[in-house]
Design a protein that fits this description.
Layout: H1 2-18, H2 28-34, H3 37-63, H4 68-94, E1 130-132, H5 142-146, E2 152-158, E3 183-191, E4 210-212, E5 236-238, H6 244-258
Helix pairs in contact: 1-4, 3-4
């Protein structure tokens, strides 16, 4: 009676005292499974499997002579195994009441508000993904020089006319601060797999166009901390306007032909 009491009474009772996650979202997968007959048969099979393993262990325990230390060791080991199986069985039945594991990333917990002790707008040390507003970038290369790990790569070309918009390549000639651009950024790559999140690249930017998402920059871009990728090359973010280099070359060729 020691093992079954330990397995199906004491361990579940401790698990009940610890508590369970009653705020979990329901899984669509379990909802579909509950509509199938084999799911109920699976629960019954697992239940009788636990009882069978318990019965076989009791046969060994009652038909053989063990020393005191062997008896205590057997009780402890079998209690752990059957206790774990008992908890698993309890959670399987709880799944029918929508108390199941959250299927991340399709389903996500609601993110609570951060409390860092003071106003978020004055907190300028945020560690998250880098983002660049290309409409304000003037191609000064200060962020590239400041990066200690060389994860920022920038290539610029001289604009046909300073401060003029180039609709062909979606280039804005004037920043939001009123700075007239003399260069066209044809490449602006940031390799976040090499980034050390030091935030040093954001300070020298005269236009404040490169920043880490979230925190005081939440109005510009919400925080983005879930950007893991199975392929490392997908962590290279390319911010330059697509086709800027080719479009600029075609624009110059057109101007030379007209001249």
């Amino acid at each position: 009676m020691i093992i079954p009491v330990f397995s199906f009474v004491l361990v579940p009772f401790i698990d009940k005292l610890i508590g369970r996650d009653t705020e979990n979202f329901s899984e669509s997968r379990y909802i579909k499974l509950e509509k199938r007959k084999f799911y109920n048969w699976l629960l019954i099979f697992i239940f009788f499997g636990v009882l069978g393993s318990l019965y076989s262990s009791l046969l060994v325990f009652t038909h053989y002579q063990f020393s005191l230390y062997e008896t205590l060791g057997l009780i402890f080991s079998l209690g752990l195994v059957t206790g774990g199986m008992g908890i698993t069985l309890v959670h399987l039945f709880r799944a029918r009441n929508d108390n199941v594991t959250l299927q991340y990333p399709e389903e996500k917990w609601p993110r609570p508000e951060r409390n860092i002790g003071f106003d978020h707008s004055s907190y300028n040390v945020i560690r998250s993904r880098l983002h660049v507003d290309m409409d304000d970038c003037i191609g000064c290369l200060k962020c590239e020089r400041a990066c200690p790990v060389d994860c920022i790569k920038i290539v610029t070309e001289k604009a046909p006319a300073r401060g003029e918009d180039l609709k062909e390549i979606k280039h804005k000639g004037v920043t939001s601060n009123g700075t007239r651009k003399a260069l066209v950024v044809t490449r602006f790559d940031i390799d976040m797999s090499e980034c050390c999140y030091c935030n040093l690249c954001t300070y020298p930017c005269p236009e404040e166009c490169i920043f880490m998402t979230g925190g005081p920059n939440a109005k510009k871009h919400p925080i983005d901390y879930e950007f893991s990728e199975p392929d490392r090359s997908d962590l290279i973010y390319r911010f330059a306007k697509k086709g800027a280099k080719q479009g600029l070359a075609e624009l110059r060729a057109k101007q030379d032909a007209e001249a």
